[in-house]
Design a protein that fits this description.
heterotrimer, A mainly alpha, B mainly alpha, C alpha+beta, A: mainly alpha, Ferritin, 60% helix, globular, C: alpha+beta, Ubiquitin-like (UB roll), three-stranded antiparallel beta sheet, 4 helices, 21% strand, binds fe (ii) ion
């Protein structure tokens, strides 16, 4: 039995949902503006998958809180401070190199995470991640290939990709910070601590980036984090003000 | 030469499709390239007014549906560019014509999307009109175009239905939502009638196109079909068609509309719509600002091939 | 590096063949642009497999396809017109022999 005021499961589901929602939103910004039509379609596919995962996680979060708020209410009527996504998800889409490098770093993380969560003792988590894993595996294939093409393409593409990596690397440590939610006894058989994924992620990611002739940024002490506690970059507020404007202008309306 | 022309005409007359490697009159080829590339441009420029609302869609369901819909339009553009390429023009040449404003595309996409209701209206009216056009054109004589259109038609239905769902929900929603829907219909009704092109009497290429079966029905015929269907649907929604002259002709059993503002039509087609410049510059920068991405992929492939050869 | 030279080089066109279910033939779906094989496969999947389930995809560079020409039509195909003996309907069997097994 959970403690009455232990909302760790809700918090955890919201984190998973917010990560996908915000990433999917950023990807969707490419629709109509990608480097080639085929890539418009590919990025829109990935964005749909992400928003689909978000919907499932937020629905589950809504369920465990006895539907006090629906998934849509969670999406459209929470302020930035209540969003719990990783900072890396909310950074503006940047150029194609930035989008691809972010996608690769996140896909690698998400793949390892869902692979573990498939076996979760919580049915919501295991069901959603089992299905999502197949899609994430494809996303990773897509982003890995593009990292090679851009990193080891032309001088210009290499430079842009390296620049993107240098910035994004600062946000990678946050993926592996296990806090009191992850350590909550009520989640014990439900989740995998993200800190346990770090070394495998690092091995895989670093060797692939090196294959792409990219330089791994020097280990820094100034890694950035805060998203899991609601402390975000200023970008999230703008993202939300756009995302939520219609829903908030007409509260109570159905769409 | 005479033989080839005879074979071509015989094939047309017995309803056979013309395929890329078949002999065809130069003007047939030219007209097809013009037609298919215009159609392709319309699909990808058409992504922009709707894409404009993906980030603001008011529910998760609406967001994912709109994203899928706009993505489909990219697919349609792609099928059509491929069909045109079989006639000996490259995608790059077609893009160039679009970016330098030499090529035309459907004028409807030069109107702005200002409210969420516009997304419903576009699905209902614009995709609705496109379906009528495309299902007819799918019977055209050129194989690759006809096959591309068949694939497109299969996908369009969902576009129209999701639009009608949006309109339906708005019309049964709050007063503000109903007003939003009506206001939006007021803006989109006339431009959607213009989508079928000028009256047959003013349509310069029509007769050749009909003869070659790359136009199957006349503009006015298709427009009439659209009007008859849409007027009835509007009644169900409880919306008013913004045309005081609209009346039912009991003899022909069809709805007659007032006259379309053709000055507006030609003005928008000729580049003076509210969004012409934004649309072209958005397409242009998507293509030109990202040329380094395409170069990177080419260069990576060359390097990889060299490595494979050396090994 | 030959960046300049690459500038105007277009990605190749690939023809896409889809097999919807195992055991069925691959049929032509359309084409995509891609710089390499892997991209061609992924683009084919994303462009032509957005809706329907797909079991397998073939891709082949358009330029590698050889096809018959319209000029070849007579010499290639018309000659099969009179080879009726290749079709089962050409042959006559005793009455009732087709159903003999069923009636057993
Ligand atoms: Fe379309
Ligand atoms: Fe459509």
């Amino acid at each position: 039995m959970h403690l009455k005021n232990d909302n760790s499961l809700f918090e955890y589901l919201v984190r998973l949902g917010d990560d996908r929602l915000i990433l999917g939103h950023r990807l969707s910004e490419w629709c109509g503006h990608a480097p080639i039509l085929e890539e418009d379609i590919a990025l829109a596919n990935i964005a749909q998958d992400c928003i689909g995962h978000a919907t499932h996680f937020l629905n589950a979060a809504s369920e465990v809180e006895n539907k006090i708020k629906t998934a849509d209410e969670l999406t459209y009527f929470r302020d930035a401070i209540d969003y719990k996504n990783l900072l890396i998800m909310e950074l503006p889409k940047g150029d194609f190199a930035f989008t691809i490098v972010r996608q690769f770093l996140v896909d690698s993380f998400t793949f390892l995470l869902y692979e573990k969560l498939q076996n979760s003792g919580n049915k919501f988590i295991s069901d959603i991640t089992t299905k999502a894993l197949k899609e994430v595996q494809y996303h990773l294939r897509h982003s890995s290939q593009w990292v090679l093409r851009l990193g080891d393409g032309t001088e210009l593409s290499h430079e842009k990709t390296q620049n993107a990596l240098n910035i994004l690397w600062l946000y990678t440590n946050e993926m592996f910070e296990s806090d009191e939610i992850e350590n909550s006894p009520s989640l014990k058989n439900f989740i995998t601590k993200s800190s346990d994924l770090e070394s495998e992620w690092e091995n895989k990611v670093i060797s692939h980036l090196q294959n792409a002739t990219l330089k791994i940024p020097e280990m820094q002490t100034n890694y950035l984090s805060g998203g899991r506690r609601g402390i975000h970059t200023e970008h999230l507020g703008h993202l939300l003000s756009e995302m939520q404007i219609v829903a908030r202008t007409y509260p109570g309306a159905k769409w | 030469m005479v033989d080839l022309e005879l074979t071509f005409e015989k094939n047309l007359s017995i309803g056979q499709k013309i395929e890329p490697r078949d002999w065809m009159p130069e003007n047939y080829r030219k007209q097809l390239i013009r037609l298919i590339s215009q159609h392709a441009h319309s699909e990808i420029v058409g992504m922009l007014p709707e894409g404009n609302w993906i980030t603001r869609a008011p529910s998760l369901r609406r967001k994912i549906a709109l994203l899928a819909k706009v993505q489909d339009e990219a697919g349609h553009g792609l099928y059509l560019y491929c069909a045109a390429e079989t006639l000996g023009i490259s995608r790059e040449e077609m893009f160039d014509q679009l970016h330098t404003k030499k090529a035309k595309y459907s004028s409807i996409f030069n109107y702005p999307t200002l409210t969420w209701a516009d997304i419903g209206m576009i699905g209902w009216l614009v995709d609705g009109a496109a379906i009528i056009n495309q299902t007819t054109m799918a019977k055209c004589s050129y194989g690759p175009y006809s096959r591309g259109l068949l694939r497109i038609c299969k996908e369009e239905n969902f576009h129209k239905i999701q639009g009608m769902e949006i309109v339906g929900i708005l019309c049964s929603g709050t007063n503000e939502q109903k007003e939003m829907a009506q206001e939006s219909l007021n803006r989109w009704w006339w431009p959607s009638l213009m989508m079928f092109g000028p009256h047959d009497t003013n349509s310069p290429n029509s007769s050749d196109l009909m003869k070659w079966k790359i136009k199957i029905k006349s503009n006015d015929e298709l427009r009439q079909r659209f009007v008859d269907m849409t007027v009835e649907q509007a009644k169900v929604f409880g919306l008013t068609i913004p045309d005081p002259e609209l009346k039912f002709n009991t003899e022909t059993r069809s709805w007659e509309t007032g006259e379309i503002n053709w000055d507006e039509f030609y003005s928008v087609i000729n580049g003076n719509g509210l969004c012409n410049n934004e649309r072209i510059s958005a397409r242009r920068s998507a293509y030109e600002d990202n040329s380094w991405v395409r170069d990177a992929a080419t260069s990576y492939k060359i390097k990889k091939n060299k490595k494979a050869e050396a090994a | 590096m030959s960046t300049e030279q690459n500038k105007n080089e277009q990605w190749e066109i690939w023809e896409v063949f889809l097999q919807e279910k195992s055991g069925e033939p691959h049929s032509h779906a359309g084409s995509v642009r891609a710089a390499d094989k892997e991209m061609a496969l992924q683009n084919a999947r994303d462009v032509y497999g957005r809706r329907d389930t797909i079991n397998n995809i073939w891709i082949v560079k358009t330029k590698d396809i050889t096809a018959t020409n319209i000029e070849d039509k007579t010499s290639f195909f018309d000659s099969t017109d009179d080879k009726v003996y290749r079709h089962p309907q050409f042959y006559k069997l005793p009455d009732g022999i087709k159903d003999a097994f069923k009636k057993r």
